[in-house]
Automatic annotation (TrEMBL):
It comes from the Bacteria. It comes from Actinomadura fulvescens. CDD domains: alpha_hydroxyacid_oxid_FMN. Its cofactor is FMN. Keywords: Flavoprotein, FMN, Oxidoreductase. Residues 1-352 form the FMN hydroxy acid dehydrogenase domain. This is Alpha-hydroxy acid oxidase. Transmembrane segments: none annotated. The lineage of its organism: Bacteria, Bacillati, Actinomycetota, Actinomycetes, Streptosporangiales. Pfam families: FMN_dh (PF01070). InterPro entries: Aldolase_TIM (IPR013785), Alpha-hydoxy_acid_DH_FMN (IPR012133), FMN-dep_DH (IPR000262), FMN_HAD (IPR037396), FMN_hydac_DH_AS (IPR008259). Belongs to the FMN-dependent alpha-hydroxy acid dehydrogenase family.
Length: 354
């Protein structure tokens, strides 16, 4: 019986080729940052308030003017087709079954963005952008996304190249013949790290936000901010939103868990733009901790691959339903009727009690 996201992970591991599992689960270097993401959530206790009449909590939130049914979206993850042949098509179907649960589609999606858009229902679709050396390729992908009804761009800023992922190096990981980036032409992508070295523009600076504005009218979020200083620069550059992320521990090993840096960034942002967080969110109560510490919503990455591997679109729906059930359970038990009831007082560090 699968009752938690951890149960889905174990079922997925049993079904997947070990090298693909390592590609999904691995982080960079010694994976200290990967572990830190999950550990950070266990350093906070919740502080419930009782007798608040919170038996049916309302989980809706509004981000960039769009209603989300729960404060959880799907992080951009390359090649959903490694987990299920329908890939992002199944993910879009699985999320649409729940309602308005945003899906950030990776530049390295395994399915064409137009096919994904056809399944979207009420799902807000966002395009994750890796800025390539050949800007005409990036530009044409953005134009296609805009034409297909995508609603925002998420520029990943923590990846001038891919981090040193030792599991992939030890496995000499290559994409299987039937998997590739469906929205990019060309070859040479079988070894993702080598492909990124060749194709990503490693010399980006903040002027890239102006470039995105010059090619698209869509809101621009930046993903991969880990300090208050960079959050301030991002807002100065005119971004419409910030995603606190260390790329699921896959880029620079040795940075803190995202929840650890969230308060500093929330202070710097001071509510001026939507603030999202990803990394290690695995339980409904993790969502509450992130919101109490200043996030407006969170994104989940690997769990969605687990849902896909276990049961395609239905697996994604089941997995998100568990997260939603856990969230409403925790909200109700904390005395929270709506997400607006969440204050910093909802959490306290474990260390402040003996
Ligand atoms: C990612 N991530 C990622 N990020 C991005 O901006 N573009 C991408 O193409 C990918 N691809 C990708 C592939 C795989 C297999 C994983 C696991 C992750 C990072 C992702 O968006 C997100 O930051 C993390 O996955 C969040 O952490 P959790 O939820 O996986 O712990």
């Amino acid at each position: 019986m699968r009752l938690t996201l951890g149960d889905f992970a174990r079922s997925a591991e049993a079904r997947l080729d070990p090298a693909i599992w390592d590609f999904f689960e691995g982080g960079a270097g010694e994976e200290r940052t990967l572990a830190a993401n999950a550990q950070a959530f266990d350093r906070w206790w919740l502080r419930p308030s009782v007798l608040r009449g919170a038996d049916r909590p309302e989980t809706a939130v509004k981000i960039l003017g769009r209603a989300w049914d729960l404060p959880v979206g799907i992080a951009p993850v390359a090649f959903h087709t490694l987990a299920h042949p329908l890939g992002e098509i199944a993910t879009a179907r699985g999320t649409a079954a729940l309602g308005s649960v945003p899906l950030v589609v990776s530049t390295f999606a395994g399915r064409r963005i137009e096919e994904v858009a056809a399944q979207r229902g009420d799902v807000p679709l966002w395009l994750q952008v890796y800025c390539l050396r050949d800007r005409s390729i990036t530009r044409s992908l953005i134009e296609r996304a805009e034409n297909a009804g995508f609603e925002a761009l998420v520029l990943t800023v923590d990846a001038p190249h891919l981090g040193r992922r030792l599991r992939d190096l030890r496995n000499d990981f290559r994409l299987p013949a039937d998997v590739g980036p469906a929205n990019l032409a060309g070859d040479g992508f079988r070894v993702p790290a080598a492909h990124a070295r060749a194709e990503f523009d490693p010399g980006l600076d903040w002027s890239v936000v102006d470039w995105l504005r010059s090619v698209s009218a869509l809101p621009v979020l930046v993903k991969g901010i880990l300090t208050g200083a960079d959050a301030a620069l991002a807002i100065g550059a005119g971004v419409d939103g910030i995603v606190v992320s260390n790329h699921g521990g896959r880029q620079l090993d040795g940075v803190p868990g995202t929840l650890d840096v969230l308060p500093e960034i929330a202070d710097a942002v001071a509510g001026r733009v939507p603030l999202l967080l990803d990394g290690g969110v695995r339980r409904g109560r993790d969502v509450l901790a992130a919101l109490a510490l200043g996030a407006d919503a969170v994104l989940v990455g690997r769990p969605v691959l687990h849902g896909l591997a276990v049961g395609g679109a239905e697996g994604v729906t089941d997995l998100l339903t568990i997260l939603l059930d856990e969230l409403t359970d925790a909200m109700s038990l904390c005395g929270l009727r709506t997400l607006a009831d969440i204050t910093p007082d909802l959490v306290r560090p474990v260390t402040s009690w003996p």
